[in-house]
C-alpha cells in the first residue's frame, strides 16, 4: 500500500489522492488514542523526521513588505484573484500528464520558485495543506474535514535550493517531499509547532499553500466561466493565520486561485504584481521545464520596459569640453583672488593654487609624466596634496594615492603593482616609506626647484580614455586591487553629481575623506571646478568629529561630505558631554549634508535633525570605486520612514542600474537581486588582474545596439522600490563597510592564515549594542599552537590598515559547518569585543562593589562581558567615555573622582580598591601613572585643562622600566581652591614630588602650558640646590612672544601676507579673532554655570569641572614673569605649525634667550596636540627616551 501511495503522488491521476495515501485517516479520530500513539515508536520516528527537516532553517522569507508588523494585529486582509487562461490551463494539464506529475506538485513548485526568486533565500519552508472532495465531504491529509480546526491540517514543506535545480528537477524533489510529509503527518500540530517555533511565535509558518480538488464538480456547470463560481466554491474563505497564502482550486473545467495576504504588511499593488509574476513564471516553467529556476522569466512586458528603459534614461547637458582640469583653470582665470583652499589656518586663492599646480605640472612633464604614466602621492593632509593631485592630472598622468598611515607592507604592494617611476612625498615621511627604487620627490624641501617652472597652464596630451586615477581597494585574495579610473569617468561623475548638489561660488565645502578613497575625488574636484571654497580638514580634525564640528562652525561650512558612522559617534560624544536639559543643537550653517560609504538609516536621520539648529538638505550618495558613483537621493525633510535603510535614489545621468539574479534575469520590483551598473561611470577594470576584470565586468545583454557595453557586478544586494529608487540590502559576498570603508574580509582571512599558529580563519562584521560595526575574527589554532590575541593583532597590523584589524578575536575548537559540510556563518558564536586574551579566563566580580562597577562599565563601553582585570583603555575607552563613566560612578557611589584616577586604577579591581579604601588621592596633585621600574622617575606636568589623560598614549611607548608620575591641577575635584599663579603651582608640585623622590636628579617634562610650570619647577629646584638632570618642553609657546617682536617686523610680515593673499589675508585674521571671541563667550557661559554650582556648595559636574582651571591657567600664563634658567632646556617642537606672526619670526617659540645652559630643539611629527597622539606619539617617545638615556648616564 505504501509503494502504491508514493506512486500515486508522483502521478496524481487518481481522484482520491489523499485517501489512497492514508485510507485509514478518514475514520481515525484526531484525539482517539493520541496519548498512546505519542508514546509509541511511530511518534518517535515522526518527531525525528521533522527535527531533521527543520533543523537550522529560518521560516521568515524576505518579501517586499510595505510596513513593519504592528504591535496589535488589525485583521486587515487582502485577496488577489488568479485567473489562468484557457491556454495555460490546457498546457498545465498536458504537462502534468506528460511528466506523470499532479497539479498540486506543479503549483507548489511554482510557488516555492516565486518565493526563492523574490527573496534570494536558498532554503524555502512553507506550510502546505491539500484537500480532496470525497462525495459531500472535503478530506485533508491529517484526517478531519475542511471544517476541522485549520492549523491541524498544515504540514511544513522544505525546499533546499543551494544548488539551483531545473524546474523539472524541483518537481521530482517536491513530489518526494510531499510524499514523506504525508507519511509523517500524524504528529500532532502542537508537537510540530514546538519544532517550528519553540518560542511560541504567533505565526509558526507565516507563508502557506493550500490546494483543493473538486473531481465531482457538477458537470452541468462545467461550461460556466470559472471566475463566476469563485464565491460559491466551499474552499473560498479569508485566511487569517498567515502573512501570505496561495490557494489553488481545481475543478474539471480548469484551475483558479488567489493570494490572500496580511494587509498590515503588504500593499495591494505588491501582491497584484506578485500574482502577475506567478503566472508568467508558471507559464515559462510549463513551456520549458529544463530551465533552471533563475532562468525562468517573471516580468511582464510593461515591467521590463519600465525597469530596463524608463528608469535608466536620465540624460542632461553638461558644461565644458570634458576636461576636469579645464574647469578648474576657468575658475582660476575668472576669480583669481577668490579663496580656493583653507587648511590648518592657511588660505590659498584660486590664482595662487593654479600657479603652484602649473609649476609642479611642468616639472612632472619634464620628468616624463604624460598619458597613463602613474605618479605616487604619499602626503599628509595639507595644501600640498591638493597641489600634487591637480598637477598630476594637468600633466596628463595618473594619480596613485598612498596613505602615509598605512603599514609599509601594504604600501609596498601598491608600489610594486604600479611600478611607479615617480613618487611625491615630504621629507618627514621618507622614513616611513618601504624600499623604493628611485629617489622620491619631497615637495616641501624641493619646492624651490619646482618654483622655477612656469605658472602658465601646461599643455595636456591626455584624452578621456586615458587614466586619471588608480585607487586601491581591499581584495579577497589577501592583496589590495587597483581600480583603473579613466578621465572621462571622473569628469562625468563630477558633472552628474553636481546636478544634485548645485555647488555655488559662495559655498564652503568640507573635505574629510582619505585621499585613498573615491569619495575624496568628489570632495575636492566638485568645489574647485565650481569656484567654491574648499576646507581641507587636517589629519587630527578628520579623526575627531567634535573637532570637525568646531571647524565647520569656525569656517561657516555650507557643505559637509561625510559618513554616518562619523556623525553618529560625534553626536553621541556631544550628548555625553552636554548637561541634561541643555540645548544640544549644533549652530551650523550647513546648506547640504552629504552621506556616503554605508547604509544611511532613518532612525539616524531623526537623531541628526534633533541635533541641528538649522537642518540642511541631506543627500544620500551611493556608489563603488569601480563605478565612482551610482546614485544620489535628496531626502525629503518630511520623510515618513522611521526605521531601516533609506533609499539611495535613482541612477545619476548616463548611468544604468539593473537588479538581476545569477542568470542575469531582472527581478521584480521589491524582490532582492544583485545590483549591476552600466554607463559612463565605469572604471576600466583592475590593474594587472585580467581574470578578475573579466569576472566582474561583463557584456551588457540589455543594450544590443551599443557594441562593447559593459555591466559591472557590484556584489551589492538591492531591490527596486515602487518609484524606481534603489534600496541597498547587503552583500552577495563577504565584503563589509567599516566606518564607511570597504573591507574584503577575505583579505584579512588570507593574512591571518599566514600566521604559523593559525589553521583556519573567518572574519565577519558585527554590531555593538550602540550600533557601531566592528570586525570579529574567528580562528582554529594549528596543532600544538596557542596564539594569543595580542600576537595576532600585532601580526595583522604589520600588513593591514588599522580599520581592517579586527576588534575581537575568538578561538574555536572547530568551525561550525552546515549539513553539506560548508562553513555555517550563522553558527558562529556572538563575539566579545577584545576584552582579554581568549585563552585567559575572565575574572568575575568578587563582591557587590565590583559587580556594580562592572555593570557601569558595560553600559558605558557597550560590552557584555568584562573582567575585573580588564583595562578601561584596552576595552576602547577614551577621555569622552571616561567623563560618562565617572559621572555614573558619582551618581551610584557618591564618590567624586577625577579623570586621572583611570591612569593609576584602570581596571575594575583597582578602581574598586580605590573606592573601598576611600583614599584621598583625588585631593592630591601627584598621580602614579607607571610605578614600576629602576630608572629615576619622570614627572609629567598637566596642560592647560589640568588633567593628565593627554599623556596616556605616550606612556604606552615608554620603557617599562621607566617610572612615571603626573602632576595634575588642584581643584579638579570641584571643591579645592584653584591656584592662579604658576609659582604657587610649582611650589605645591615640588612638595608632592619629594614624597616619592626626596632628592635629585629630577627629570621633568610639560606639554604646552605644562611647559611653563615645568620650567618654574626647575627654577625653584635649582634655587634650592636640587639637581635637575632634564627639563623637556613639549611644544610650549611663550605667551606674549609676538609682543616682543619689533613692530616694524610685524608690519613687514603682515604686508608679505597681504601681497601673497590679497584682502583674504586680513579676512582670515578677522575670522580668527571672531572665532576666538566666540570661544571666549562660550567659556564665559560655562564659567557662569560653574559659579552657580559653587554658590550651591556642591561639586562641579565632570563635564564643566576643568573650565575654571582652564581659565585660571590661561591667566597664570599671561601673568608669569619668565627669568633665564641656568640649565639646558630641550624643546620638542611640533612639525605642523599654524601660520602666525610669532612662529614665523621666532622658530624657537620664545625660549632662545631663556635657556642659559643652551636650547636643544628636536622636531617631532604632528601638531601642537597631535604630537602626543597616534600615529605621531611613538616618534616623540623615542626622542624623549633617547634624551633621558643620555642625561641619566
TrEMBL record:
Pfam families: AMP-binding, AMP-binding_C, Condensation, PP-binding, Thioesterase. The keyword Phosphoprotein applies. It comes from the Bacteria. One of its GO terms (biological process) is amino acid activation for nonribosomal peptide biosynthetic process. GO terms for molecular function: catalytic activity; phosphopantetheine binding. The keyword Phosphoprotein applies. Keywords: Phosphopantetheine, Phosphoprotein. GO terms for cellular component: cytoplasm. Its cofactor is pantetheine 4'-phosphate. Gene3D superfamilies: 3.30.300.30, 3.40.50.980, ACP-like, alpha/beta hydrolase, Chloramphenicol acetyltransferase-like domain, Luciferase, Domain 3, Nonribosomal peptide synthetase, condensation domain. Residues 844-919 form the Carrier domain. Belongs to the ATP-dependent AMP-binding enzyme family. PANTHER family: FATTY ACID SYNTHASE, NONRIBOSOMAL PEPTIDE SYNTHETASE. This is Non-ribosomal peptide synthetase. It comes from Planktothricoides sp. SpSt-374.
Amino acid at each position: 500500500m505504501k509503494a502504491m501511495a508514493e506512486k500515486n503522488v508522483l502521478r496524481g491521476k487518481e481522484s482520491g489522492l489523499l485517501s489512497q495515501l492514508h485510507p485509514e485517516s478518514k475514520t481515525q479520530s484526531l484525539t482517539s488514542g493520541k496519548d498512546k500513539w505519542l508514546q509509541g515508536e511511530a511518534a518517535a520516528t515522526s518527531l525525528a523526521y521533522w527535527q531533521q527537516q527543520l533543523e537550522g532553517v529560518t521560516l521568515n522569507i524576505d518579501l517586499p513588505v510595505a510596513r513593519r508588523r504592528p504591535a496589535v494585529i488589525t485583521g486587515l486582509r487582502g485577496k488577489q484573484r488568479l485567473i489562468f487562461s484557457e491556454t495555460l490551463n490546457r498546457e498545465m494539464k498536458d504537462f502534468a500528464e506528460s511528466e506523470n506529475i499532479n497539479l498540486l506538485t506543479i503549483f507548489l513548485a511554482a510557488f516555492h520558485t516565486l518565493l526563492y526568486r523574490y527573496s534570494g533565500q536558498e532554503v524555502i519552508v512553507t506550510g502546505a495543506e491539500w484537500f480532496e472532495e470525497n462525495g459531500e465531504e472535503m478530506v485533508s491529509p491529517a484526517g478531519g474535514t475542511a471544517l476541522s480546526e485549520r492549523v491541524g491540517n498544515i504540514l511544513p514543506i522544505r525546499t533546499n535550493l543551494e544548488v539551483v535545480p531545473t524546474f523539472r528537477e524541483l518537481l521530482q524533489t517536491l513530489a518526494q517531499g510531499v510524499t514523506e510529509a504525508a507519511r509523517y503527518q500524524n504528529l500532532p500540530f502542537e508537537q510540530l509547532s514546538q519544532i517550528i517555533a519553540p518560542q511560541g511565535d504567533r505565526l509558526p509558518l507565516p507563508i502557506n499553500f493550500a490546494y483543493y480538488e473538486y473531481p465531482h464538480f457538477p458537470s452541468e456547470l462545467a461550461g460556466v466561466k470559472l471566475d463566476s463560481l469563485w464565491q460559491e466554491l466551499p474552499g473560498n474563505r479569508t485566511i487569517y493565520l498567515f502573512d501570505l497564502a496561495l490557494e489553488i482550486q481545481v475543478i474539471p473545467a480548469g484551475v483558479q486561485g488567489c493570494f490572500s495576504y496580511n494587509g498590515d504588511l503588504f500593499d495591494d499593488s505588491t501582491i497584484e504584481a506578485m500574482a502577475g509574476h506567478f503566472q508568467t513564471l508558471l507559464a515559462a516553467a510549463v513551456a520549458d521545464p529544463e530551465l533552471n529556476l533563475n532562468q525562468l522569466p517573471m516580468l511582464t512586458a510593461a515591467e521590463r520596459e519600465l525597469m530596463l528603459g524608463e528608469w535608466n534614461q536620465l540624460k542632461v547637458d553638461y558644461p565644458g569640453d570634458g576636461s576636469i582640469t579645464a574647469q578648474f583653470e576657468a575658475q582660476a582665470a575668472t576669480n583669481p583672488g577668490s579663496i580656493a583652499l583653507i587648511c590648518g589656518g592657511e588660505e590659498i586663492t584660486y590664482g595662487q593654487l593654479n600657479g603652484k599646480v602649473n609649476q609642479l605640472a611642468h616639472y612632472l612633464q619634464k620628468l616624463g609624466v604624460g598619458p597613463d604614466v602613474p605618479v605616487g602621492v604619499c602626503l599628509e593632509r595639507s595644501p600640498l596634496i591638493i597641489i600634487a593631485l591637480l598637477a598630476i592630472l594637468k600633466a596628463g598622468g595618473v594619480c596613485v594615492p598612498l596613505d602615509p598611515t598605512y603599514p609599509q607592507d601594504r604600501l609596498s604592494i601598491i608600489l610594486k603593482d604600479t611600478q611607479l617611476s615617480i613618487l611625491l612625498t615630504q621629507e618627514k615621511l621618507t622614513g616611513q616609506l618601504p624600499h623604493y627604487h628611485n629617489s622620491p620627490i619631497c615637495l616641501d624641501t624641493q619646492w624651490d626647484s619646482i618654483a622655477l617652472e612656469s605658472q602658465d597652464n601646461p599643455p595636456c596630451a591626455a584624452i578621456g580614455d586615458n587614466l586619471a586615477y588608480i585607487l586601491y581597494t581591499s581584495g579577497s585574495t589577501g592583496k589590495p586591487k587597483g581600480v583603473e579610473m579613466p578621465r572621462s569617468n571622473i569628469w562625468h561623475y563630477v558633472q552628474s553629481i553636481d546636478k544634485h548638489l548645485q555647488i555655488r561660488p559662495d559655498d564652503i565645502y568640507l573635505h574629510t575623506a582619505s585621499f585613498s578613497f573615491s569619495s575624496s575625488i568628489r570632495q575636492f574636484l566638485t568645489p574647485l571646478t565650481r569656484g567654491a571654497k574648499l576646507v581641507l580638514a587636517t589629519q587630527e580634525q578628520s579623526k575627531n568629529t567634535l573637532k570637525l564640528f568646531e571647524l565647520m562652525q569656525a569656517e561657516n561650512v555650507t557643505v559637509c561630505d561625510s559618513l554616518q558612522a562619523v556623525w553618529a559617534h560625534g553626536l553621541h560624544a556631544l550628548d555625553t558631554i552636554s548637561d541634561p536639559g541643555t540645548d544640544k543643537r549644533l549652530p551650523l550653517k550647513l546648506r547640504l549634508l552629504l552621506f556616503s560609504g554605508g547604509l544611511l538609516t532613518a532612525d539616524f536621520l531623526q537623531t541628526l535633525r534633533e541635533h541641528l539648529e538649522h537642518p540642511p538638505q541631506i543627500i544620500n550618495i551611493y556608489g563603488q570605486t569601480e563605478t565612482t558613483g551610482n546614485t544620489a537621493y535628496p531626502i525629503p525633510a518630511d520623510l515618513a520612514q522611521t526605521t531601516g535603510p533609506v533609499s539611495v535614489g535613482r541612477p545619476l545621468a548616463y548611468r544604468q542600474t539593473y537588479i538581476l539574479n545569477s542568470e542575469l534575469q531582472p527581478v521584480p520590483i521589491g524582490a532582492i537581486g544583485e545590483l549591476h551598473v552600466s554607463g559612463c561611470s565605469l572604471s576600466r577594470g583592475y590593474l594587472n588582474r585580467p581574470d578578475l576584470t573579466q569576472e566582474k565586468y561583463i557584456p551588457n545583454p540589455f543594450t544590443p545596439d551599443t557594441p562593447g557595453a559593459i555591466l559591472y557586478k557590484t556584489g551589492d544586494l538591492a531591490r527596486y522600490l515602487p518609484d524606481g529608487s534603489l534600496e541597498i540590502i547587503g552583500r552577495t559576498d563577504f565584503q563589509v563597510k567599516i566606518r564607511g570603508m570597504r573591507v574584503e574580509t577575505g583579505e584579512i582571512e588570507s593574512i591571518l592564515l599566514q600566521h604559523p599558529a593559525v589553521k583556519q580563519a573567518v572574519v565577519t562584521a558585527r554590531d555593538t549594542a550602540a550600533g557601531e560595526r566592528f570586525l570579529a575574527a574567528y580562528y582554529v589554532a594549528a596543532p600544538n599552537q596557542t596564539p594569543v590575541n595580542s600576537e595576532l593583532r600585532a601580526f595583522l597590523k604589520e600588513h593591514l590598515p588599522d580599520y581592517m584589524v579586527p576588534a575581537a578575536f575568538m578561538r574555536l575548537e572547530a568551525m561550525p559547518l552546515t549539513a553539506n559540510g560548508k562553513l555555517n556563518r550563522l553558527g558562529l558564536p556572538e563575539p566579545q569585543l577584545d576584552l582579554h586574551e581568549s585563552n585567559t579566563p575572565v575574572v568575575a566580580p568578587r563582591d557587590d562593589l565590583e559587580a556594580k562597577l562592572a555593570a557601569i562599565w558595560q553600559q558605558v563601553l557597550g560590552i557584555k562581558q568584562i573582567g575585573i582585570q580588564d583595562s578601561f583603555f584596552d576595552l576602547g575607552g577614551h577621555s569622552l567615555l571616561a567623563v560618562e563613566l565617572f559621572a555614573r560612578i558619582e551618581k551610584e557611589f557618591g564618590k567624586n573622582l577625577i579623570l586621572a584616577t583611570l591612569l593609576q586604577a584602570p581596571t575594575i579591581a583597582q578602581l574598586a580598591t580605590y573606592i573601598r579604601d576611600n583614599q584621598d588621592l583625588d585631593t592630591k596633585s601627584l598621580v602614579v601613572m607607571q610605578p614600576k621600574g629602576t630608572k629615576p622617575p619622570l614627572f609629567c606636568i598637566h596642560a592647560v585643562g589640568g588633567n593628565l589623560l593627554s599623556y596616556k598614549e605616550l606612556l604606552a611607548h615608554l620603557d617599562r622600566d621607566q617610572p612615571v608620575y603626573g602632576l595634575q591641577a588642584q581643584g579638579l575635584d570641584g571643591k579645592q581652591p584653584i591656584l592662579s599663579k604658576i609659582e604657587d603651582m610649582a611650589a605645591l608640585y615640588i612638595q608632592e614630588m619629594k614624597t616619592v623622590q626626596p632628592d635629585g636628579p629630577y627629570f621633568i617634562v610639560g606639554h604646552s602650558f605644562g611647559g611653563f610650570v615645568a620650567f618654574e619647577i626647575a627654577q625653584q629646584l635649582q634655587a634650592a640646590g636640587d639637581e635637575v638632570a632634564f627639563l623637556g618642553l613639549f611644544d610650549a609657546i611663550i605667551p606674549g612672544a609676538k609682543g616682543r617682536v619689533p613692530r616694524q617686523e610685524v608690519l613687514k610680515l603682515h604686508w608679505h601676507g597681504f601681497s601673497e593673499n590679497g584682502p583674504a589675508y586680513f579676512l582670515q585674521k578677522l575670522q580668527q579673532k571672531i572665532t576666538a571671541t566666540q570661544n571666549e563667550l562660550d567659556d564665559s557661559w560655562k564659567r557662569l554655570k560653574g559659579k552657580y554650582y559653587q554658590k550651591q556648595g556642591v561639586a562641579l559636574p565632570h563635564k564643566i569641572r576643568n573650565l575654571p582651571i582652564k581659565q585660571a591657567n590661561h591667566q597664570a600664563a599671561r601673568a608669569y614673569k619668565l627669568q633665564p634658567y641656568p640649565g639646558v632646556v630641550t624643546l620638542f617642537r611640533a612639525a605642523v605649525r599654524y601660520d602666525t606672526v610669532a612662529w614665523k619670526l621666532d622658530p624657537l617659540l620664545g625660549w632662545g634667550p631663556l635657556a642659559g645652559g643652551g636650547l636643544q630643539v628636536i622636531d617631532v611629527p604632528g601638531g601642537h596636540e597631535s604630537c602626543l597622539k597616534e600615529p605621531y606619539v611613538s616618534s616623540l617617545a623615542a626622542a624623549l627616551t633617547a634624551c633621558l638615556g643620555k642625561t641619566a648616564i
